[in-house]
Amino acid sequence: MGLFSKKDKELEAVINQIRVDLSNNYKDNAIENINKLDKLLEEKKQSGKLKNPESYEELLKHFREDVANFKRTY
User: How far is the C-alpha of 8 from the C-alpha of 49, rounded, in Å?
Assistant: First the structure.
């Protein structure tokens, strides 16, 4: 997302929750929210409500990689 791009508040809320889940080692919650982000992103792309989906798609890809490489620290 560029410097002056408008962020989607609903998508940003889910993204923030995924970050919290990952930082707290909540893999199951992270996976659930990643799927929620994917569905929400697809809905917004289909309805034309999202002007720049590429940045969100890249972030979604990054989250999926993080979960695939997830290792418990305890």
Answer: 9
